[in-house]
Amino acid sequence: MTDHGGLAPILRRSAVYFLAPMLTALALAAGWPLARTIYFALTDARLDGLSEASFVGLENFWNASWGGLLADPAWWRAVSNTLIFTGVSVGLETVLGIAIALTLNMTFPGRGLVRAVVLIPWAIPTIVSAKMWGWMLHDQFGMVNDLFARMGFISEPVAWLASADTALLAIILVDVWKTTPFMTLLVLAALQMLPHDIYEAARIDGVHPVKVFLRITLPLIWPALMVAVIFRGLDALRAFDLMYAMTGNSEDTMTMSVFARQQLVDFQDVGYGAAASTMLFLIIALLVAMVLTLGRVRLTEDLR
Amino acid sequence: MMHWSPIAKAAFFSLVGLIVLISAFPFYYAVVSSFKQGSALFDVTYLPEPNLRNYVAVFTEQPFGRNILNSLLVAFAVVTLSLALGLTAAYALGRIRFRGRGALLVTVLAVSMFPQVAVLSGMFELIRWLGIYNSLPALIVANMMLTLPFTVWVLTTFMRELPKELEEAAFVDGATPGQVIWHVFLPLMGPAMAATGLLSFIVAWNEFLFALTFTLSNEMRTVPVAIALITGASQYELPWGNIMAASVIVTVPLIALVLMFQRRIVSGLTAGAVKG
Questions:
Q1: CATH number for the domain whose boundaries are B61-275
Q2: Domain A73-268, CATH class in plain words
Q3: Which of A52, A276, B156, B225 has a 20 to 30 Å separation from B22 between CA atoms?
């Protein structure tokens, strides 16, 4: 950034006018609703009478009579589902994303087409992928059961989405299918910025490809990879669409977002639902703060 | 890979084949299923037998045409508003030096980390107060939270990299900052605006939670909610043929869009995430 000499003060004054519309929109669509949600978390508001809410302090989180959020086993089940979902799906997506990106980074005939096809799952709306996979995983007529039975993997149809053992796993796999392209895309972009001469030198010296990957490629793409993992992780922590569309409000797959919405809308209990929403917000805010301070991820070059 | 052994080559191409198969098969299977009627759906087959009755049924048995129109209106309004607000803000954030600029950028970025459910009850109250519950403006307002932060972020990154001589000449000639944005930056920002606009469009088109919560009647629903709530004669009898047909209808244009603008989207995504 350079100063514009005599222009700088005029420009600085005009900055307010250029920023005001954007800031107003963000305050209206995000800031104010968030503040109200946090306020509702401290009240006994009901959906049909938001204005008649009275202040109850932290009772929605913890109280002696009915326990509150922190004593609710359903909430902790949702927390654990969300953490399992986030850890497993982001982990798999990262490993698969790197593997596919390395494959697509090779020169081979038809590479452009393959790169385009790989993007298809990412282009499909989440609700549509949920329905497509819901149909493929159908217990009676699904092609997955049919295929597995023909190949001899299973002797009788599995109710993938209805049984507690497989429902979360099935949803994780659908999420991996849908979001691995995003990871692939970001890793591929990072791979393409790597200098060629290091690889040339390694090849001449006869260094084993695995060693080249671990010693050269991985450290060089690490910063980009970490940013991608953080973005995906934050996304997975607030996951809602897939679970809601595939298994509704089922406890086996309920995430924190699904829990909060069920309280807010289905049970009309705005105070309690807002408390759950606020907890989710706090967890994510805490994680972001930790990443920003502990990690060496720099979000912008010249923040001042 | 020219000097690879035939076995290595075969293994490599099977791997590529597998990646392509897994990526494309579920959508292909949805297309095959969307042509099937009644009990034909209960047999697993892999070859399409085109029959458009489900496609007609989707439009006649429910207001799916209206749902598509709703989604288009919301998405276009969200894209236009995000780009207009984002471009002016990006000019201030990217080209003007003032105190608190960095903090402001971080605040904007922080909004993109908000879980949607965290604003749900506050937004519900606001929407009811504005009298726009169960209408498209409600969805337009709500969607701004999802698209505006990354639009500002990506446009600021692009704006910052343009040479500083650009606007100086215009200012010397007596142009106002508004004219500079309109006549100097707008034409140069074309590719960046196309990339972020496309991403906003996809986000707004796919958005589910707000649309599910802030609309009530069939006629006001957007496409994802309409598809999620398609029901059959009884609760246990989902019309899978119709659901697959509706899914194919809304996905084909999206896949076409993504394949056509592949490069732009990748550059937009990577500017937002990798560069930072």
A1: 1.10.3720.10
A2: mainly alpha
A3: B225
